[in-house]
Amino acid sequence: MSSLPVSTSCWECTPLADGTTLYRFLSADDTSEFCHKVSAALAKGWVLHGSPTYAFDAARGVMRCGQAVTKPVAVPYTSEMKLGEQ
């Protein structure tokens, strides 16, 4: 069984020439929706960054999951980028 790519340092996510490394934090309730969200990001070339998080949302009475992902891209960063489409 192969392991998932996990990046814990910047040398593993070196941006391409004239590009940058994008960062996203994925979160959702603790359901299969969260797993599908992370799986879709990995399928698009995003890489796990750090450990997942798991916390109780007392206001809603549910557990929440979170995972940071990064992706080197060959274009300069702009705040208008739609990160989920990269």
Main features:
four-stranded mixed sheet; about 90 residues; 1 helix; mainly beta; about 15% helix; single chain
Plain-language structure description:
The chain is mostly beta strands and 86 residues long. The protein has a domain at 17-76. The protein contains one helix and four strands. The protein has one helix spanning 32-43, and strands at 6-7, 20-29, 47-57, 62-73. A four-stranded mixed β-sheet has the order 1-3-4-2, with helices on one face. A hairpin with a 4-residue loop joins strand 3 and strand 4 (62-73). It starts with 5 loop residues before the first strand and ends in a 13-residue tail after the last strand.
Instruction: Please give the radius of gyration in angstroms.
Output: 14 Å
Strand order of the largest sheet: 1-3-4-2
Distinct helical segment count: 1
End-to-end distance, in Å?
28 Å
What pattern of helices and strands is seen along the backbone?
EEHEE
- The outline comes out as elongated
What structural class results from the helix and strand content? Answer: mainly beta
Estimated share of beta-strand residues: 35-45%
Number of strands: 4
- In which range does the helix fraction lie? 10-25%
* Largest beta-sheet characterization: 4 strands, mixed
Regions with pLDDT < 50 over 5+ consecutive residues? 1-11
Mean pLDDT across every amino acid position: 84
